[in-house]
Amino acid sequence: MNLQYYKEILERAGVVFESGLSQAEIQELERQYAFAFPSDLKDFLMFALPTSQGFLNWRRASNDEIVYSLTWPYEGMCFDIEQNSFWLEKWGQQPASLDEAFSIARKAIEQAPTLIPINGHRYIPDRPNEAGNPIFSVYQTDIVYYGCDLADYLQNEFSYYFGRSEHFLKGEIKYIEFWSQFAEDAV
Q1: pTM for the model
Q2: How far does Cα 46 stand from its chain's mean position?
Q3: 168 pLDDT above the threshold of 80
Q4: CATH number assigned to the domain covering 3-185
């Protein structure tokens, strides 16, 4: 991924950048929030930190903002359990108690790769910890692929500026434990 090229295109789209995160800042975020940035996202955030248009400002965001973004997928799943009768068959019989149902959902999400917020409700999984993980658009249990990888995601999110007339997935999509079943199987 040509980081300078992507930064220039995003700046044309109105994205504001600060200087990139330092290695120490990356390590502290990973330690504090118990995930590991995939290398392509880490390289991007260390090259230049996007701070506008829905991007999470990892340097200036409060703990509450970061925790809110990290728990958004769980909270959305709980909403659908309570309001829309969502339940995965592999979880067994749905308990009558919402607290028990939420506990089962929480355990499943805790075992799954952590979804790291990129921009709004767009997320990248932290496992496998390597470049090329897909980007998911997560809104409750409506979870779809929004890019085959970080570069493809940015081209879809800012399609006009990259000369794309529509959103499409350009390339093979890596299967991600737990999360891909939503995008592929329409659970």
Answers
A1: 0.95
A2: 18
A3: no
A4: 3.40.1580
